[in-house]
Amino acid sequence: MTVIETESLTKRYPRVTALDRLSVGIEPGVTGLVGANGAGKSTLIKILLGLSPATEGTAAVLGLDVATEGPRIRSLVGYMPEHDCLPPDVSATEFVVHMARMSGLPPTSARERTADTLRHVGLYEERYRPIGGYSTGMKQRVKLAQALVHDPKLVLLDEPTNGLDPVGRDEMLALIRRVHSDFGISVLVTSHLLGELERTSDQIVVIDGGKLLRASSTRDFTQATASLAVEVTDTDDHPDGTRAALEAFTAAGLTAHADGHLLLVDIADESTYDTVRDAVAALGLGLIRMEQRRHRIAEIFKSKQDQEGGSRDAA
Ligand SMILES: Nc1ncnc2c1ncn2[C@@H]1O[C@H](COP(=O)(O)OP(=O)(O)OP(=O)(O)O)[C@@H](O)[C@H]1O
């Protein structure tokens, strides 16, 4: 079952192709949509909401065709826009109640849902103060609350960590995780920062120049490239133990490279551990560390970009 499905989705503006034959299926859970600025993330969200027509291709949200079912999709989906769009003179409560009413909730349940949602996003104490006096983090929480207030099945969050300091980012990401774990709401969250979504997301979709680069579970993403980090001592016989071990690993048929004092060995299969241990023992070196290291997503892309000679700002 997929919550979002696109097929050859293309969006051409007069001077740029923002989405280029994008075909992707997104399952329930938390999905990170990652891409550099201008990759096409916001364009995709607007098409999914039925607010902007695709030039070619098709897309379905919760099984509904975006070309014909926009209003129904928007009743089932919450949207947190990227830019600050909050009225400064009203309180969070007034604004979120208003948005709940816009979504069709009757007055009493709009007020109840608003109180619950603001409590959930951690804005309960400040809920009667005008939004104009809020910090960036508080404004982001109001935007999240209005996306959740009508109890959607799916929320589309466009760069919710933008402008936040590291602590604010972590809090927002934890909150996003809870949107799914506490309420079972699926989440599509965008970011231009590859690293920040890997702890939050079940799946990662990476787009670049409107094209799909990769879509897979976060676990597959990082595990497929697992490596063994090995650190060894120097000895009188081998004053550069790292170099001696690297040569021995290569001679034993392993793929390895040095990163300072660390040797990073590709894990071909279970026997890699024994081969490393035996090679180190044969040289008479001490083994300081041998541990499996999952690559961070950012590293995978850095090496991919280095290979391609690219210098994009997704990091
Ligand atoms: N209404 C528009 N008219 C013309 N070009 C547009 C329009 N909206 C977006 N674009 C262009 O389409 C491309 C993709 O933009 P989009 O906003 O979808 O990217 P993004 O990944 O969301 O990046 P950002 O995080 O910077 O918003 C960009 O080159 C952008 O300039």
Automatic annotation (TrEMBL):
Belongs to the ABC transporter superfamily. GO terms for molecular function: ATP binding. It comes from Streptomyces silvisoli. Keywords: ATP-binding, Nucleotide-binding, Transport. The keyword Protease does not apply. It comes from the Bacteria. CDD domains: ABC_DR_subfamily_A (cd03230). The keyword ATP-binding applies. Residues 4-234 form the ABC transporter domain. This is ABC transporter ATP-binding protein.
